[in-house]
Design brief:
Helix content: 25-40%
Number of strands: 4
CATH architecture: 2-Layer Sandwich
Structural class: alpha+beta
Shape: globular
Number of helices: 4
Length: 143
């Protein structure tokens, strides 16, 4: 029996910078100042940018959203209900050493069906942050 392993290109710093720029451009077009974090598949920081006027906590929330999306391989917007009392992940936010954040704005990044990283956006309303992150992932896919 023969097996074939197909290599998937990892998320590069060039990709990460393109994600940051696309998210930032989407936020700027909406008049929102944000912070954007991009992590590789191992959870390592590849790119980060916080707009000068973005609230300081946006940097922390963008990073936690990216980490959460990466670890659970799901947009954080899809996980909000799971941490409510009685939800599947109700105790998960306090069960780990590294804090997760179940607020919309974190989106996993896939290439050829494989998880290669995640982007997190913080600073706008949760739905806005989710939209900016999605716009960035879509822009990367078109490249």
């Amino acid at each position: 029996m023969s097996t074939t392993t197909v290599a998937v290109a990892p998320l590069t710093t060039h990709d990460a910078e393109a994600l940051v720029e696309a998210a930032r451009s989407a936020a700027e077009a909406a008049g929102v100042t944000v912070a954007v974090t991009v992590l590789d598949a191992g959870g390592h920081l590849l790119a980060f940018r916080r707009d000068d006027r973005a609230v300081l906590i946006a940097g922390e929330t963008s990073t936690r959203k990216a980490y959460t999306a990466l670890q659970l391989n799901a947009p954080t917007a899809d996980l909000v209900d799971a941490v409510q009392p009685g939800g599947l992940f109700h105790t998960l936010p306090t069960a780990l050493d590294r804090p997760l954040l179940f607020i919309a704005g974190g989106v996993p990044v896939h290439r050829d069906g494989r998880l290669i990283g995640a982007i997190g956006v913080g600073g706008g309303a949760p739905d806005q942050d989710h939209g900016f992150a999605n716009a960035a992932v879509e822009a990367l896919a078109r490249r």
